[in-house]
Give the backbone structure.
Amino acid sequence: MDSSFFQKKRPWSHYKDFLLQSYLDPYIPKVAKLKRPILLVDCFAGRGRFEDGERGSPLIIVEAIRKWRRKGMNITGRFIEADIENFAVLNEALNPHSDYCQAMVGSFEEHLPDLAQFARQNTVFLYVDPYTVKGLVFDQMKSVYDQIRNASSSVEILMNFNVAIFMRWALAALKRGSEMPDEEAIESMADDPNESVEHRTLSDIAGGEYWAEIAANDELSFVEKLQAFIGEYKKRMQGSFQFVNPFWVKEKYHHQVSKYILIFATRHPDGVRLMNDFMCQARRKFVAKQFSDHLLFDLTPEEEIVEPDALKDGIAAVFAQSQTCITRLELQLRLLLRGFFARLTLSEINKAIAEMLKEGRLFSSTGRTRINNTVLLSDRPFS
């Protein structure tokens, strides 16, 4: 990979740090209730720290492990790095924490079989932030997911997928011109967007041949092809996870093409609810930095603002499609799946539900407007 990569962290990389650090803190005590050892795995760990002094993901994860080990939790970390020089630096950075953190030399693919075995006895969180998209071989990763699923263990994954690089390769493989917008300079990491990548390699990454039909579709723009691809990729991940949520990260708001996509996957509703609030915070910080911070007027684009009436209409639409009463928790999840993920916090959703209860547009099984997540709701009065 480019030796300059670890000189300074890219501005858009702070999204990954924010979400990783924010999520691990509530995640660890939550899954500790399962009474299994907890294993955090950084699958493309790098050096642990950038030359400008900023922490990389390994040290962010180490800090979370240290905090909760002091409180008696059985939690360890494994940090995988294939590059020998990077591994040496990483190993030195992790040496003070060697009792509970292990640096492992080798590629992600080489360690996947071991991870699949660990997953049978451990609660596992995978942080997958590769230098190269080629490291994301779908069937190999699915073997880990399936081991965990078969063992009834908990697994969650936060993965960085550079889908723009993938689609550039796909178009090149089909010998088609690229529709990449002019303003976009792809953050390639170890990947060359103009590299020739074989059809088979692309199918291995995608988990099927569907990418070729999407790339060849003349009716789709480049951005629409990215969205269509992630939609299909998400469906394949849903074979192992109940909830799969992509978060598109741009360098500038006006850019059409994202730098990368963070894909969060979990089998537990608490996971998607927690990550929703953190991704919502990240999105709002990004928008505020460009449109309202230190400005006389708030220039936030209208599409970033979810009006209360639009949210209430979304709630009403959920009940219009539901044949039974549902709890507030289930209503939250259905709203997140209907396009409100990373756009509204749970407290904002709960506020709208409370208002609709007061307005007589919703009804609770308790007859009260102040409720918790277990209370049943309906758009018709309870008998």
About this structure: The chain has two domains: 3-267, 297-378. The domain at 3-267 is CATH 3.40.50.150 (Rossmann fold).
